[in-house]
Amino acid sequence: MTTSWPPRRTARRPLAPRVAAPGEPVDPARIGRRVVRRRAKGMDAGAVAAALEDARFDARQDSRHEGLAEDVRGPAELAEWERIARLLAAAAPGTVYDPDAGDVVQAELATEAAAAAREAELREAARVAARADELQALREMGTLEQTEPRDGDEAARGSVHVAEQRLSSSSGGGGHPGCSRLRAAPW
To answer: Mean pLDDT for each consecutive 10-residue tract of the chain (187 residues)?
Structure first.
């Protein structure tokens, strides 16, 4: 009987502290630009020029490998080094790179913040819709009055109320018999 060496660990190691969330797309080009900005912080024009030459050398080396043909991170890093070199060449002598002061970086951060806000709105809308469905099901089972209220139930209750109004106006009747109980709920 053979056993593997080294022996397997029974406990798994925890994940890295910053792993992309399941719904968060991974953008290698953005990662490359951020890496370059971190490395370039505090560099003067001479140090950036040397780093740019290294990036160009790496790009030439990578161009010889078939597996890196579709890589977007390498070209993004090279483009970011070139942008920083142009920025420092136009600045006064002795100026060091500060990513927090750059217009391009601030615009990218604003775009990311706007995207995060849109994502938060979508998550909140999905949460309200799910809670409205849950409240609707509880109402249909007749157990709505026994339900403990949660934060944000007002929005979900409003969503159910709007749906009930649409049903009552389309059916021409008085709506669902439990609708008055939902509106009269103490929370």
So the answer is: 55 50 76 92 93 93 82 92 93 88 85 89 87 82 76 68 64 48 46
d(CA 32, CA 55): 12
Q: For residue 133, give the nearest of 162, 154, 159, 167 by alpha carbon.
A: 159
Closest C-alpha to 78, from 61, 66, 94, 95 = 61
In 3D space, the residue among 178, 185, 172 whose CA is nearest the CA of residue 136 turns out to be 178
Phi, psi of 181 (to 5 degrees): -65, -40
Backbone φ and ψ of 96, nearest 5°: -110, 155
CA dihedral 126, 130, 135, 141 (to 10 degrees): 160
Q: State residue 66 phi and psi, 5-degree precision.
A: -60, -35
Question: Whose structure tokens read 């080294």?
Answer: 6
Give how far Cα 180 sits from Cα of 70, 96, 144, Å. 60, 68, 12
